[in-house]
Amino acid sequence: MSTDTSSTANEIIIQTKAKKDFSLINVISNEYFLYVVSFAGFLAIWHYVAAAQLLGKSLATPMDTLQEMTRLMTVKLAGKNLLGHIWASTRRVFIGFSIGAVFGIPLGLFMALNRYINAFVKPLFDLFKPMPPLAWISVAILWFGIGESSKIFIIVIGSFVPCVLNAYSGVRVIEEELYDVVRVLGGNRWHEIIQVSFPASLPALFAGVQISLSISWTCVLAAELVSARAGLGWIIIRGMKLSKPEMVLGGMVMIAIVATLATVMIYGIEKLLCPWKRSADEA
Amino acid sequence: MAYENIKTQNPLLLKILPFLGIGIFFAVWEFVVDVGILPSTMMASPYEVVKLFIDKLSNPNPDGSTIGIHAWISAQEAVTAYILAFVMGTPLGLLMGWYKVARGLARPVFELIRPIPPIAWIPLCIFWFGIGITGKIFIIWIAGIVPFTINAWVGVNMTNPTFIQMARTYGASDWQIFKTVCVPSALPMVFGALQISLAYCWTNLVGAELLAADQGLGYLISMGRRLAMPSMVVLGMVTVGLGGAIIGVIVDMLEKRFMSRIRR
């Protein structure tokens, strides 16, 4: 028996874990064992559906996909190997996302801290908010042509909105009591902003950054699907035009890997910057 | 709270500023296009957009359908996929929250598929379903199911453990606890997913229609680009924004209604 006591704010939770016997039924119902089963089952079904051609020739087996990915690593397509295309997409996301965050987060904070700015900007912002970023693709192409800047423009638009929204609501939901503490201790408005508003809105800010990032990936992909000469979206569309499902799937797998890495990275930064964030809401 | 007592009247400026903001925006827009700072091949003035809108209400040219039909097709696709996502995602999330076996089996697949942007499925969808309505519903469904599943899962996880322990003490079975304790306590989170999922669905609808469609608002936007008619692009964007806002308001009303029943 092991007892684990954890305190969450004002309530104390005591969990007692009994050591389980090593038996077949316990092994089978173990969560990690089931993960392996599920993963293997997923691959097996995928392989079966593809190999038996239940969907015609429009699905490649996992093995083919892997082979295609290793082939793309060495073979150059449009002057770049797979790593080059990954870098092309990542670079766009990085630039666009940085611009969006650099402008979006301060705007959101200002909107929450100053009611005059809020009264002026909020209605305009509400006007643009329901427009999906992908709807801007056509405008971006009309304005900037099909080059690099039109793709970055779409990513900026896509990542801007969640950054503003979360910075805004992050400051808005701060409990008034926290400001009271600063005031009682003789702080002025500046101290309130620096010592309460910024740190207390960080978790919400990071939630916004995560959403921004996933929207950025969607945007870069959509932009590359519509018009591009490099990038993971280009690989996918190229695979479609050549009727090579393994190439399409290879591109999708690569996007999943890169997007997951980016998410994990932001998550690591968040943990570094807000260590007080409770493990309870990391569900 | 002491704040309520010292709350002052809002100054007049605060009441004017919102209208000022919108007014300046439209004035600058009209000015920039009329004077020619942005050439008419790149941007249309608000007046032209309104004119085109009135024209498109009855005129199916040059893109094949009136705006009403485009909007109706888009709404059909989005709402079908949205409902399917709710009906399938929520039970999956609830089960994943409570039953270890369901979590063990579904989680790896879910985590594998989640980071892939739904747009990336478009080529496979075209292989599988052609460019008909099924493929688009599939893409929007993938986009919409993720928030429903995650929120239902988190909702069950956030159930107060004391309630579960009490139900156990009174001899309730796993299924009974799930049904009477976990599901009701997860409902606010489940309804919270309605708006998030709707936004995802609507975004990906536009993406799906930009690439493979012959009707719908996304198609209207991409046709506007191909015909080099900025007014049509802007009209499509405005209609998409309006449509999203209208469906959002309807969902919000439904959500409030359900929530008031739970809190009874």
Overall number of structural domains of chain B:
1
Helix and strand element order of chain B: HHHHHHHHHHH
| Main sheet: strand order of chain A | 1-2
CATH architecture of the largest domain in chain A: Orthogonal Bundle
Q: Compute the CA-based radius of gyration of chain A.
A: 24 Å
Shape of chain A: flat
The class by helix and strand makeup of chain B works out as mainly alpha
Largest interface: A-B, 67 and 69 residues
State the major sheet of chain A: 2 strands, antiparallel
CATH class of the largest domain in chain A: Mainly Alpha
Q: What's the total helix number of chain A?
A: 11
For this structure, the CATH topology of chain B is: MetI-like fold
What is the overall silhouette of chain B? globular
How much of the residues of chain A is beta strand, in percent?
5-15%
Could you tell me the number of beta strands of chain B?
0
Q: Judging by the overall fold, what is the CATH architecture of chain B?
A: Orthogonal Bundle
Mean pLDDT of chain B: 83
Share of helix of chain B, binned: over 70%
Secondary structure tally, helices of chain B: 11
Largest sheet of chain B: none
Description:
The complex is a heterodimer of chains A (283) and B (264). With 283 residues, chain A is mostly helical. Chain A has two domains: 19-59; 70-281, MetI-like (MetI-like fold, Orthogonal Bundle), CATH 1.10.3720. Helices cover 72% and strands 6% of the residues of chain A. Chain A has a two-stranded antiparallel ribbon. In chain A, strand 1 (2-8) and strand 2 form a beta hairpin. The longest helix of chain A is centred in the last third of the chain and has 38 residues, at 189-226. Chain B has 264 residues and is an all-alpha fold. Chain B has helices spanning 2-6, 12-35, 46-56, 67-98, 100-113, 122-129, 133-157, 161-169, 174-211, 217-226, 230-262. Chain B has eleven helices and no strands. In chain B, helix 4 runs parallel beside helix 7 and helix 10 (217-226) packs antiparallel against helix 11. The longest helix of chain B has 38 residues, at 174-211. The two termini of chain B are 27 Å apart. Chain B has one domain: MetI-like fold, CATH 1.10.3720.10.
